[in-house]
Amino acid sequence: IMLVKKFESVLCQLGMERLEHPLFYHAPVGIRFGIGGEETIYLDGKPNPVYVQGALDRAAAIYRSLPIPPDILRIDGYPEEETDDSVLTTVRKMAGLPVPQEQEASVELDEDGDAHRQIRFYWDLKCVSFCPEQLIREIILGDIGGWSGFTSSVYLAGPGPFIYHLYDDRGLDVLGGSQELLLPLYRQFHGWILEYDLEQIDRLFASED
Hints:
35% helix, two-stranded antiparallel sheet
Protein backbone atom coordinates (compact mmCIF):
# COMPACT_ATOMS: atom_id res chain seq x y z
CA ILE A 1 0.00 0.00 0.00
CA MET A 2 2.57 2.47 -1.19
CA LEU A 3 0.42 5.51 -1.93
CA VAL A 4 -1.51 5.21 1.34
CA LYS A 5 1.77 5.12 3.27
CA LYS A 6 3.20 7.96 1.22
CA PHE A 7 0.15 10.12 1.88
CA GLU A 8 0.33 9.36 5.61
CA SER A 9 3.98 10.32 5.63
CA VAL A 10 3.13 13.68 3.99
CA LEU A 11 0.56 14.34 6.73
CA CYS A 12 3.15 13.47 9.35
CA GLN A 13 5.71 15.86 7.78
CA LEU A 14 3.04 18.59 7.79
CA GLY A 15 2.73 18.10 11.54
CA MET A 16 -0.72 16.49 11.41
CA GLU A 17 -1.67 13.22 13.05
CA ARG A 18 -4.60 12.74 10.66
CA LEU A 19 -6.74 14.65 8.19
CA GLU A 20 -8.97 16.87 10.27
CA HIS A 21 -11.28 19.53 8.89
CA PRO A 22 -10.94 22.43 8.43
CA LEU A 23 -7.39 21.46 7.45
CA PHE A 24 -6.05 25.00 7.80
CA TYR A 25 -6.78 25.04 11.55
CA HIS A 26 -5.07 21.69 12.18
CA ALA A 27 -1.81 22.28 10.33
CA PRO A 28 1.13 24.32 11.67
CA VAL A 29 1.85 25.94 8.28
CA GLY A 30 -0.88 26.78 5.79
CA ILE A 31 -2.63 29.44 3.74
CA ARG A 32 -6.39 29.74 3.34
CA PHE A 33 -7.48 31.34 0.08
CA GLY A 34 -10.87 32.74 -0.87
CA ILE A 35 -11.89 31.29 -4.24
CA GLY A 36 -15.48 32.45 -4.77
CA GLY A 37 -15.69 35.93 -6.30
CA GLU A 38 -18.15 38.78 -5.80
CA GLU A 39 -20.48 37.67 -8.62
CA THR A 40 -23.85 36.17 -7.72
CA ILE A 41 -23.61 32.40 -7.35
CA TYR A 42 -26.87 31.56 -9.12
CA LEU A 43 -28.48 32.87 -12.29
CA ASP A 44 -32.02 31.66 -13.06
CA GLY A 45 -31.65 28.97 -10.40
CA LYS A 46 -28.52 27.53 -12.00
CA PRO A 47 -24.84 28.06 -11.11
CA ASN A 48 -23.71 31.36 -12.67
CA PRO A 49 -21.07 30.46 -15.32
CA VAL A 50 -19.19 33.72 -14.60
CA TYR A 51 -18.95 32.90 -10.89
CA VAL A 52 -17.87 29.30 -11.62
CA GLN A 53 -15.24 30.44 -14.16
CA GLY A 54 -13.81 33.03 -11.76
CA ALA A 55 -13.47 30.46 -8.98
CA LEU A 56 -11.93 27.98 -11.44
CA ASP A 57 -9.42 30.58 -12.68
CA ARG A 58 -8.27 31.37 -9.12
CA ALA A 59 -8.06 27.75 -7.96
CA ALA A 60 -6.25 26.70 -11.16
CA ALA A 61 -3.75 29.59 -10.94
CA ILE A 62 -2.81 28.50 -7.40
CA TYR A 63 -2.62 24.86 -8.53
CA ARG A 64 -0.23 25.76 -11.36
CA SER A 65 1.96 27.72 -8.92
CA LEU A 66 2.42 24.89 -6.40
CA PRO A 67 6.08 24.16 -5.52
CA ILE A 68 5.99 21.18 -7.90
CA PRO A 69 3.10 19.28 -9.51
CA PRO A 70 1.29 17.03 -6.99
CA ASP A 71 2.07 13.32 -7.34
CA ILE A 72 -0.71 11.81 -5.21
CA LEU A 73 -4.44 12.33 -5.59
CA ARG A 74 -6.74 11.05 -2.84
CA ILE A 75 -10.52 11.20 -3.11
CA ASP A 76 -12.71 10.07 -0.21
CA GLY A 77 -16.16 8.58 -0.70
CA TYR A 78 -18.96 7.78 1.71
CA PRO A 79 -21.00 4.95 0.25
CA GLU A 80 -24.16 5.12 2.39
CA GLU A 81 -26.86 3.94 0.04
CA GLU A 82 -24.61 2.69 -2.75
CA THR A 83 -21.70 0.34 -3.35
CA ASP A 84 -18.02 1.33 -3.38
CA ASP A 85 -18.00 0.61 -7.10
CA SER A 86 -20.84 2.97 -7.89
CA VAL A 87 -19.15 5.77 -5.93
CA LEU A 88 -15.94 5.11 -7.85
CA THR A 89 -17.80 5.06 -11.18
CA THR A 90 -19.23 8.52 -10.46
CA VAL A 91 -15.82 9.88 -9.39
CA ARG A 92 -14.08 8.48 -12.47
CA LYS A 93 -16.73 9.67 -14.92
CA MET A 94 -16.90 13.22 -13.56
CA ALA A 95 -13.17 13.72 -12.98
CA GLY A 96 -12.02 11.83 -16.07
CA LEU A 97 -9.83 9.47 -14.04
CA PRO A 98 -8.65 5.91 -14.66
CA VAL A 99 -9.00 3.09 -12.11
CA PRO A 100 -7.17 4.13 -8.91
CA GLN A 101 -3.93 2.29 -8.10
CA GLU A 102 -4.97 1.81 -4.48
CA GLN A 103 -8.06 1.98 -2.33
CA GLU A 104 -8.86 1.31 1.30
CA ALA A 105 -12.00 1.42 3.39
CA SER A 106 -12.80 1.90 7.05
CA VAL A 107 -15.69 2.74 9.34
CA GLU A 108 -15.43 6.21 10.88
CA LEU A 109 -17.48 7.67 13.73
CA ASP A 110 -18.90 11.16 13.31
CA GLU A 111 -19.37 13.80 16.04
CA ASP A 112 -22.64 12.13 17.11
CA GLY A 113 -20.99 8.72 17.39
CA ASP A 114 -22.76 7.36 14.31
CA ALA A 115 -20.74 4.96 12.17
CA HIS A 116 -20.14 5.77 8.50
CA ARG A 117 -18.26 3.71 5.98
CA GLN A 118 -15.49 5.68 4.28
CA ILE A 119 -13.61 4.60 1.20
CA ARG A 120 -10.40 6.27 0.04
CA PHE A 121 -9.17 6.10 -3.56
CA TYR A 122 -5.54 6.89 -4.44
CA TRP A 123 -3.96 7.72 -7.80
CA ASP A 124 -0.26 8.04 -8.58
CA LEU A 125 -0.30 11.16 -10.75
CA LYS A 126 3.11 10.34 -12.21
CA CYS A 127 1.51 7.37 -13.97
CA VAL A 128 -1.91 8.64 -15.02
CA SER A 129 -3.05 11.31 -17.42
CA PHE A 130 -5.10 13.76 -15.46
CA CYS A 131 -6.76 17.11 -16.19
CA PRO A 132 -6.66 19.16 -12.97
CA GLU A 133 -9.06 21.81 -14.33
CA GLN A 134 -11.78 19.22 -14.87
CA LEU A 135 -11.54 18.00 -11.28
CA ILE A 136 -11.26 21.56 -9.88
CA ARG A 137 -14.40 22.54 -11.78
CA GLU A 138 -16.36 19.60 -10.35
CA ILE A 139 -15.27 20.49 -6.79
CA ILE A 140 -16.40 24.09 -7.34
CA LEU A 141 -19.80 22.86 -8.58
CA GLY A 142 -20.08 20.33 -5.72
CA ASP A 143 -21.98 22.55 -3.30
CA ILE A 144 -23.84 24.73 -5.80
CA GLY A 145 -25.51 22.28 -8.15
CA GLY A 146 -22.98 19.57 -8.98
CA TRP A 147 -22.23 16.24 -7.29
CA SER A 148 -21.82 16.88 -3.55
CA GLY A 149 -19.45 13.91 -3.22
CA PHE A 150 -16.54 16.15 -4.28
CA THR A 151 -17.06 18.68 -1.47
CA SER A 152 -14.22 18.60 1.09
CA SER A 153 -13.08 15.17 -0.07
CA VAL A 154 -10.31 15.75 -2.66
CA TYR A 155 -6.65 16.06 -1.65
CA LEU A 156 -3.63 16.63 -3.88
CA ALA A 157 -0.28 16.00 -2.22
CA GLY A 158 3.29 16.48 -3.34
CA PRO A 159 6.86 16.41 -2.11
CA GLY A 160 8.07 19.43 -0.19
CA PRO A 161 5.72 18.37 1.33
CA PHE A 162 2.42 20.10 0.62
CA ILE A 163 -1.30 19.39 0.33
CA TYR A 164 -3.66 21.32 -1.93
CA HIS A 165 -7.24 21.06 -0.66
CA LEU A 166 -9.96 22.93 -2.55
CA TYR A 167 -12.91 22.17 -0.26
CA ASP A 168 -15.71 23.87 -2.22
CA ASP A 169 -16.46 26.92 -4.39
CA ARG A 170 -15.52 29.28 -1.57
CA GLY A 171 -12.14 28.24 -0.34
CA LEU A 172 -8.86 26.46 -0.74
CA ASP A 173 -6.25 25.43 1.83
CA VAL A 174 -2.62 24.88 0.89
CA LEU A 175 -0.59 23.30 3.68
CA GLY A 176 3.18 23.14 3.60
CA GLY A 177 6.11 21.57 5.42
CA SER A 178 7.63 25.02 6.00
CA GLN A 179 6.88 28.74 5.60
CA GLU A 180 9.71 28.93 3.07
CA LEU A 181 7.98 26.40 0.81
CA LEU A 182 4.72 28.40 0.69
CA LEU A 183 6.29 31.87 0.61
CA PRO A 184 6.03 32.23 -3.19
CA LEU A 185 2.27 31.42 -3.03
CA TYR A 186 1.85 33.78 -0.09
CA ARG A 187 3.46 36.62 -2.04
CA GLN A 188 1.92 35.96 -5.43
CA PHE A 189 -1.67 35.43 -4.24
CA HIS A 190 -1.71 37.58 -1.11
CA GLY A 191 -4.77 39.45 -2.41
CA TRP A 192 -6.80 36.21 -2.44
CA ILE A 193 -6.08 35.19 1.16
CA LEU A 194 -9.31 34.86 3.14
CA GLU A 195 -9.69 38.07 5.12
CA TYR A 196 -10.89 36.26 8.24
CA ASP A 197 -7.54 34.44 8.57
CA LEU A 198 -5.31 37.11 7.01
CA GLU A 199 -3.83 38.42 10.25
CA GLN A 200 -2.86 34.95 11.44
CA ILE A 201 -1.33 34.09 8.03
CA ASP A 202 0.58 37.41 7.84
CA ARG A 203 2.07 36.70 11.27
CA LEU A 204 3.11 33.23 10.16
CA PHE A 205 5.05 34.58 7.18
CA ALA A 206 6.34 37.79 8.78
CA SER A 207 9.64 36.16 9.78
CA GLU A 208 10.21 34.93 6.19
CA ASP A 209 9.25 38.18 4.53
